[in-house]
Design brief:
About 30% of the residues lie in helices and about 25% in strands. With about 325 residues, it is an alpha+beta fold. The two termini are about 40 Å apart.
Length: about 325
């Protein structure tokens, strides 16, 4: 495509026609000549927002086409889900997203259409409306770059942050750690892994992106009066624990053996030399609560595995206990 703003004809057929999901909160959304989205959230609710960006070429394997919906690093689906997960962890219901795409001149229009079709598919699954954004072709871009800004709404008394953890609360996690990173590694090194492990194990690991959304457990947690949540994505569970403790100005003690981990993650991390506790953990939600048994029971009754992994303490020490061994959690790199 030619350098500059994407022409009107291309925007009409390859962008706007791909956007189908609608929300009643959106009075004015994506359209020709519309430079702003206009929202009308339900009375008494607050707005929340989150931004995620990344290269759409990262991690793509040779010959892999765009618009596949893969959760490898180069996925617009992944960016939208990360926005939605962060909004959900704030106690919000995600309802809209705007997208900015910067494409290299070598990108054909078919790629743009595929990105938008993939984005609409992700948004439809999350009940989020694409409300606008920006698309241009630039000689400064050697590969496609995307930024997603998600919008959510929440009642003021249900807003969650990472700042409210207090001593005595239990630390609960949903599902398993390292899901996002396991799926990415299993896809990227699939052929090598097939030579070492059973096909079913590798294929199961590659399918872990089906667990990536934390919207169901976040909504249940809010109803269970949880007000401290954190998405354990970038940097994995160790980074999430550190960030939560630092933000709240507290300490914590976590039992390493209680961290829920799939065997597929263990095997693939061993092969790839990755640390499962620092592996991207999208799909795992970190929560603190004084009523851990009730929260775990509620999540499990709704088909979401959950585990109590430790507790918040009054010191500033971040301690990891592994049977007789005790060590301090390191600041995430």
């Amino acid at each position: 495509m030619k350098i500059g703003k994407v022409p009107e004809s291309i925007r009409k057929r390859s962008i706007f026609r791909q956007i189908r999901t609608k929300r009643e909160e959106v009075l004015c959304g994506a359209g020709l000549g519309e430079d702003c989205a206009i929202f009308a959230p339900a009375q008494g609710k607050v707005w929340t927002s989150c931004v995620q960006s990344g290269s759409l070429a990262a991690w793509r394997k040779p010959g892999e086409t765009v618009g596949s919906g893969s959760f490898l690093g180069g996925s617009i689906t992944r960016l939208i889900h990360k926005c939605a997960n962060n909004l959900a962890a704030s106690g919000s219901e995600p309802f809209a997203v705007s997208l900015a795409l910067i494409l290299p001149p070598s990108a054909p229009e078919e790629d743009l259409k595929a990105y938008m079709a993939e984005a609409e598919k992700a948004c439809a699954a999350l009940r989020m409306q694409i409300v606008g954004g920006h698309t241009e072709v630039s000689a400064a871009a050697s590969e496609p770059i995307a930024a997603a800004t998600g919008y959510g709404q929440a009642f003021p008394n249900q807003v969650c942050t990472t700042k409210g953890a207090v001593p005595g609360q239990a630390i609960v996690v949903s599902k398993w750690i390292g899901l996002e990173g396991t799926a990415a590694l299993a896809k990227h090194y699939q052929e090598e892994l097939f030579r070492r492990y059973p096909v079913y194990l590798v294929e199961e690991a590659a399918g872990f992106d089906r667990f990536f959304s934390v919207l169901p457990e976040a909504a249940l947690a809010v109803k269970s009066n949880v007000r401290v949540m954190h998405d354990a994505s970038s940097g994995g569970i160790f980074a999430a624990l550190w960030e939560l403790a630092e933000s709240s100005g507290v300490g914590l003690t976590v039992d390493l053996k209680k961290l829920p981990i799939r065997q597929e993650t263990v095997e693939i991390c061993e092969y790839c030399g990755a640390n499962p506790y620092e592996l991207a953990g999208g799909g795992c939600l970190l929560m603190t609560t004084p009523e851990a048994p009730g929260l775990v029971r509620t999540l499990e009754e709704n088909g979401i595995p959950a585990a109590v992994i430790g507790s918040i303490t009054g010191s500033h020490d971040k301690i990891i206990v592994n049977e007789e061994e005790i060590r301090f959690l390191n600041r995430p790199s």
